[in-house]
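Batch manifest, entry 17 of 40.
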Amino acid sequence: MQNDFIIEVWSRLKPLIPAKDRLDGADAVVSVCDEFGILEELEHHENLDNELTAAVRSQLEEEYPDEDEEYEEY
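Output type: structure tokens
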């Protein structure tokens, strides 16, 4: 239910945000989801648009960097 709410809010805000700034807007929405502990749930929602999908992936990559990259540094 929380995911549906987030997606509905985003779908209503998105047209108000200039196209060049939408990824930043999606990042802000996803950041709030992360702060409230619902980011992982949102990741698996089937109705994410391109901006929300990219923002979720970006946020998750920041939290859980690829383990292979850590080993390459050594």
